[in-house]
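Today's session is about reading a structure prediction critically. Students often jump straight to the picture, but the first step is always the sequence itself: look for stretches that repeat, for charged clusters, for runs of hydrophobic residues. Only then move on to the predicted structure, which in these notes is written as discrete structure tokens rather than atom positions. Here is the chain we will use throughout the hour.
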Amino acid sequence: GEALRIATGAPVPPAADAVVPVEQTTPVASDGTPGARGRDASGPLPERCLVHVVVPPGGSIRPAGSDVAAGAEIVPAGLAVAPAVVALAAGSG
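Below is the predicted structure for this chain, in token form.
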């Protein structure tokens, strides 16, 4: 019965059970006027929000560290360091 804005990749609040992608929502102003569906999520918070999909519990939530297995080699020794390699290593902690 409640929703809040969360950025991609941000920690999910403990009581949250699912995440609805902004592209699957329509903001509704206090006067009932709907905004653009899938709008940029950086503007002011809408009074209400329409959700156009059913998201099951756990939907669109990835546990921390689920993209790389523990002990996985991220950057092999001897690989030339380029911007993409730096981003991969930094994103992997």
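Discussion point for the tutorial: Residues 69 and 92 are 10 Å apart (CA to CA).
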